[in-house]
Every structure is written in structure tokens, then in C-alpha cells.
Amino acid sequence: MDETGVMLCMLGSVKVLVNKNNLRDYKGTGVKRTMITTIECISANDRSLLPMIIWPATTHRSNWTTFPTPGWHYACSKTSYTDSKINLEWLTRVFDPQTKGQTNQKPRVLICDDFGTHETLEVLEFCFANNIILCRLPSHTSHKLQPCDVKVFAPLKAAYRDKIKRLYQGGVNTIGKEHFTLLDKAFSKRNITSAWAATGLFPLSPDRVLRHTPKPPDQLSVPEPDNIRRDSILPDEVPQTPTTPVSAKAFISLHNLIKQDILDEKSVPRVQRRVQKLANAGQKAIAYCALLENQKQSLIKINNEAKVRRSTRAIVLGNANVISFEDLEVTRATRATKDAMKGKGKRGRKRKRAALDEGESHPSPEPEPEPEPEPKVARAAERARERTAKRNQRQHEHQGQSQC
């Protein structure tokens, strides 16, 4: 087993094709640099254990694991490096469960480097209780004797950089923790077998390492300078050839020239050169179409991934030191159930149209009849009506007399 750091948004040295008029039309290293640590383990029977990813954080976020990675474990560390607690968790959660069923009660040998967190008291007690033999490599020899360092980690980082390069070409400018997903190409059976063979550990062959170890010279010898002979090279006569067409008009023009010279026996070499240029133009067009098709498929894949990530909120799923992907899924489902039970809605007043629709869908009930007044109140109201009627009658009589 061994750990390695992977720099997010970090591209390696790659060769790309760009337009000669726009030499900067390619994305380089991103500004924000975040390193994560992955703990990997490979066995001599061509197996690789599921990894443990260490985030540089203090809590687990839901949008970091938007794609399924069953069996993976995730840890949090402020420095993104492993420590004694994380190493013990890896031993108990990853190594022991995934290797115990294949040993038939035989001892298991775990090879690691001389890092101090690999040999704590808790780790040694667990190894002793579970029949695990902890083997430590000598100092400054992991680059020669550690199979992960020799053959596995380089393809792992190359596969990740290739994925980041494709994301950049597809228009994704921000590379985050959620983009570090399955990279099975690095842990192929061929890479694992060659890693153990290159270190001379399985099959056991110490000469595989010792023969590449430099030996001190017996006596100091000064090499003689090489005799450099410079031959005069005469420039070859370069025949005049047409240029490769890059447009439809030039393509048709070259085709017409070929048809004109095809019947002339003296112009056979010239026709051959023009046919070659025509073939080159066809190859370029086919290659360009293939690149466009590849870019289209990459954009479709990136768009689908972006939809999933945008639909996932950054919710804190826990602050445990180490948690598995299955536990994250259970926590995410529990959180979604609680939110659904609460029935949280958006704050603020309803829109006028929504209020009208709601009023139409739920018509207002008929008004209830007013309750009858009490007897005393009814008599007082009756007397008031009688006085009002008498007053009105006197006013009408007075108006009639004045008119007469």
C-alpha cells in the first residue's frame, strides 16, 4: 500500500494541435490548486483494493460524490495528508474486509514504506490480532521497491490529466473534487503484474533491482573527445509541387488540373504529386470530421454530468473522520426524507396570478346568515323604526299644507 497526492486542475506536459494564428488557444494550468490524497493497494494476484480519498476539508459535502463510487471511502484532513487515525481507519475499513475472505486463515503480508503513521501502537495491535504481517521497506528505496510508485501511480496521474484535458476542451473551466472519479485504466492487470515484476518482489528476483543500481567506478577515466566529421551536404533539388488545398475552391481547382494532365504521358510525375496533395486534403478533412465528432460526444457527456452536479446542493453530510460511499448515500437519503417531511416552501408573498388561480380552484363559501338579535334589542329597534316613520309622516303633512 502507498499514498500519492494528485493536484486538481493540474495538467501535465502534452502536445496539442493549435491554429498558427492563435497559439494561445489552449487551456493551461488552472489558478486554483487543490491537492487530494488517495491511498491505493495492489496485491501480487493482480488485484487492486478500493481506494480511500482524503479531502482537504473538515466536513463531507454532498456535491463531491455526485456519481456512484460503491466501496470507496472518503476521509477529511485539514492538510489533505494521511495521519495515524486515517491510516488505522484504512486498515480496519478497507484492507481487512477486502482481503480477509481470500486468505484461508493464512497470514497476510502488508508492505508499506517507513512513514511514521504506518507503525503506530494501534496499527501494530490490530495487525497482531488479525494475523497481518506488517513489512516495512528500507528508507529511500520506495522508488525502486514499492510497486505502486514504480508502475501504478504514473498511469493513474496520466489518466486523470487526460480526463482534465478533455474537460477543458469541452468548456469546463472549474475542476473540482467531484471530477476525481473512477480511473480504472491505471489499475489494469497488466500494470499490476509489471509493477510487482519490476520491483523484483514477485516473482522474487533481486537482480531486477540490483543490476540497475549504479556502482562506483574502479578508476577515474577521462573520456576522449569524439572526432566530429562534417560532411558537405549538397542541397537537393526540390521539385515544384502544388500546395495541399484547404478550401473547396482549391480542391476543385486541383482536381481540374489533374484531369487536364492525366492524358499527357510526359506529365505523369506532376499528376502523381497532385494526386498525393488531393489525398492529403481528403485525409485532413476526414481527420477534422473525426475530431469534431469526438468533441461533440465529449460535450454531450460533460453537459450530462453538469446537469447532475447542478441539481445537487452542497449539503454537509457529516463531519466524521472517515465515511464510506454507502454511508454517504444513506445520510443523503435520510436528509432528503427529513426535508420532504418538513415541507419547506419558498418564503415571500404569493404572486397575484397564483392567488387568483388558487381562488378559482377554491371558491369562497356562501355567507352564513346573521344570528337573530336578542328580545330587548329587537324591541328597541322596533321603537326606533316607529319613531322614524312618524317623523317622516309629519314632514310630508307639513309640506302639503305649505303648498296649499
TrEMBL record:
Q: Which InterPro entries match?
A: CenT-Element_Derived, DDE_SF_endonuclease_dom, RNaseH_sf
Region spans: Disordered: 213-243, 336-404
- From the UniProt record, which GO molecular function terms apply? DNA binding
Q: Give the signal peptide as a residue range, or say none if absent.
A: none
Protein name per its UniProtKB record: DDE-1 domain-containing protein
DDE-1 domain residues are 33-183
Q: Record's Gene Ontology CC terms?
A: nucleus
- Write down the species: Lachnellula suecica
Q: Kindly name one Pfam family recorded for this protein.
A: DDE_1
> What superkingdom does the record give?
Eukaryota
Record field: compositional bias (Basic residues):
343-353
Q: Where is the composition biased (Basic and acidic residues)?
A: 354-365, 373-404
